[in-house]
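Re: Re: ligand-bound prediction request (bumping)

Still looking for help on this. To restate: I need the protein modeled with fe (ii) ion bound, output as structure tokens. Inputs repeated here so nobody has to scroll up.
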Amino acid sequence: MQRATDNLRADHALTTSAMAVLRAVARQVRAGALFPSADGAVLLRYLREFVVAVHFRKESELLGPAAAMYGDEKTAALVGELMRLQDEAAELVHSLVLFWEPEGDLTPPERDGFTSTVDLLAQRMNRIQELEEDQLFVTCDRVVPLDDHLGWLRDFTALEQERGSSATWEPRIRELAARWLR
Ligand SMILES: [Fe+2]
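Reply:
Sorry for the wait, this slipped through. Here it is.
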């Protein structure tokens, strides 16, 4: 049986690829290349529509509250810290969207703003995924009853049907990774 945490780890792997592409984009923009508008749009939509609107919700609305309830005080503090980091990451994603231009290029200050926001977001996402995979998911697998895990998988499916699934995003992110991460 797939555990709910396996589903979340698979989301993380896809997000790690998307962030690697975004960092490659930022490196080129920093070096003076034209802002890649179409690829940037796909990445920003993935972050906003999947990472923030689907993946973070799986964790903040389902996993986190249960882990805080079944776990000890340390787990409750970890859940609080993760929710704070996710809010920061969501704000950074929102800021990045403001830099996106349908055509034309970024001004020098916009280039700086875009690339430093990407750097901050990459740091936050690394930290979030590390804390979740090393601590939160391990605790959930240990202390949360199996019935809850099954319920989460059903809720994950419903959320993805409503807001977009990782399966839909995966080929688009793979295609970007194949071009940008050579
Ligand atoms: Fe996560």
